Amino acid sequence: MSVSAIAGGITAAxxxxxxxVSAGIKxxxxxxxxxxxxxxxxxxxxxxxxxxxQAAPVLVSREHIAASGGxxxxxxxxxxxxxACTGAQGLTTTRATxxxxxxxxxxxxEQVLVSSTGVxxxxxxxxxxxxxxxxxxxxxxxxxxTAARGIMTTDTGPKEFAVRVDTPAGAFxxxxxxxxxxxxxxxxxxxxxxxxxxxxxAPALLARALGEVTGRTFNAITVDGECSTNDTFVALASGRSxxxxxxxxxxxxxxxxxxxxxxxxxxxxxxxxxxxKLVAVHVTGPDSDSDAMRAAKTIANSLLVKTAIHGADxxxxxxxxASGRSxxxFVLEHARVQVGPIVLFTNGQPFDDQxxxxxxxxxQSNLDVHVDLGTGGAGHAVAWTCDLSxxxxxxxxxxxx
Amino acid sequence: MSVSAIAGGITAAxxxxxxxVSAGIKxxxxxxxxxxxxxxxxxxxxxxxxxxxQAAPVLVSREHIAASGGxxxxxxxxxxxxxACTGAQGLTTTRATxxxxxxxxxxxxEQVLVSSTGVxxxxxxxxxxxxxxxxxxxxxxxxxxTAARGIMTTDTGPKEFAVRVDTPAGAFxxxxxxxxxxxxxxxxxxxxxxxxxxxxxAPALLARALGEVTGRTFNAITVDGECSTNDTFVALASGRSxxxxxxxxxxxxxxxxxxxxxxxxxxxxxxxxxxxKLVAVHVTGPDSDSDAMRAAKTIANSLLVKTAIHGADxxxxxxxxASGRSxxxFVLEHARVQVGPIVLFTNGQPFDDQxxxxxxxxxQSNLDVHVDLGTGGAGHAVAWTCDLSxxxxxxxxxxxx
Lengths: 401, 401
Prior knowledge:
Two copies of one chain form a homodimer.
Chain A: E1 2-6, E2 16-21, E3 33-48, H1 56-68, E4 71-79, H2 87-105, E5 112-119, H3 126-139, H4 145-150, E6 159-167, E7 170-179, E8 188-189, E9 192-197, H5 203-216, E10 232-237, H6 250-270, E11 278-285, H7 289-301, H8 303-310, H9 316-324, E12 336-339, E13 342-346, E14 349-350, H10 355-362, E15 366-372, E16 377-386, H11 390-398
Parallel strand pairs in A: 4-5, 9-10, 11-15
Antiparallel strand pairs in A: 1-6, 2-3, 3-4, 3-10, 5-8, 6-7, 7-9, 11-16, 12-13, 12-15, 13-14
Helix pairs in contact in A: 2-3, 5-6
């Protein structure tokens, strides 16, 4: 079995068409409605924000996945307005949108999913979205490039990625698009990702793979520690490759999905507002992976760690202090702190003569930081974060003023 | 019973003398050793950092409070070096320091407490600290002003506060000093506070009051969500006022301690590096105060909230989103968001016409933000935070470069 990167995104897998159009929701006239359509009912699985405040499209999509038994024909997405905190009117708009798409595609309404991203607390103009859906339906194609642009808000560019997975039973494809840069946009909300595959997967197995992959990709990234009201990750499987996924080939599905989800997740961190560096935070030592992730996330969200990395300051004391407050067990005497290949602290002993080499390493834009908690367990985790720059503060403090 | 602010700090209560001197630990020549001495053994209680990484002086002070049964004659403090992550040598330095002070004061070693603050992972020069202790002992006085300066690191100024508490049984005094601005100083660690009173209080009752007050003051502030390796809050009671605290007058002790601790805690937030605004985050609605504090802390640590406040952006969506992810129950339909007197969101309805008035309010430097979680309970909490400015990033990213 092998996984290779290929060109394309949401339509790299057989059985899907997509398009993004401009529907006038964004004042700028940029693309703001994306429609993804499966030629036949596809298996679908999704994970949504855990924020207690959930936008209307999140509520409706959850409901539809349950009602359809995990099959879908279409996903309609708008950017420029999150349709969150918009009460009964917001829900009415969302239901009208999915009904219109179901008519276009010719499928039951519960086979249509829906996402919105943009400003919170502003009403979504229902006519514009429905006109956009009509235009996108007319423009559907096997070239999905406009689809990646139609879901952007202040992303610095479109995010798409695809792979071919070769297995003994044949090849299948996984491709996807994503948007977001943390919840870094004022009043915006935030991360959306859509992935398709032409493997044949039952909805329950697809949901299991999605859950597993999400924990190591989208749930392992942070830009600013904020969890939005609209976060959504949807996977659709058309089966068109003829490769059927069962318990024996489940690993191939996970590898393919994970390769695409990781690439999209890292693109989100790399494009985080104000970010100049992508940092992989590796933690080892705990008995469980979940404790390792807890420590990795605490380090990844530490303002002192993020500012030190921004300034290329090999400040291992901040890594030790963040590790010590994470809730995971930490034994200072056996702990080790490493940036790239350079050990800065181990067995209770600092190596301050390594500071210049470490500072030089930290001036690069792709970094690895490794903390061993000194607890001798086999648990490990990787979280990805970016540095914190004055530009982040400027963007988020001055956006509306 | 009444509580009134008075002049002074750590020596405002009868029975204490203090001094701060320059011992050459700081390269700048600024004051860096402070000694506080009680004329006779005082009741003592203390709370320390919950970080699993604990500096040598924290370990020794914990041990001494247990061994002395809650009595102390002296507290020796140095700034400029945290003596954290310094292994066996660090512990030896700390033990030599307290032994020297016990000799000077003429008391058992376990009646001496010790604190350090400054750079992590650097050895504290034991001769300088002991010379400093000798000089400070010679300089002890009832004017404690130098004591407040001897514990500073990058604080913008000394922090001291004192009150007189009038009770039916007579008046007693509570005064204190503190340092810190969050764990915002590169490689530094961080918050120290020392409070004295001339009330007569048994150690166990003092410890109970300290625990109660800490939760509503020092544990209710945040600058950057970091918990350092050296955080310490010590209270000493001399009994010299003749006012004895029992269950009946316990409330007066708590009020006096809380007034001083709150003033010192707010001085820490107001002086947070890069901070231009002090923000009180009020949360109501949960059944328990602890859930209210959880939501208040989530809001107070949100980068998006802190940058919005910096930019005077009345961005209620960020307050709602942070509340929704705090873990406390949140009911959007009944929630209310208010900045100062201005309601921005209630019963699912935004009041965007209030935005200009809210922006004007947010341009002030002392702010109140109130979120009701819409859950109808009687729990409430206040957390204090500051805004996040580009200056914070500059200071913490560029300190050592």
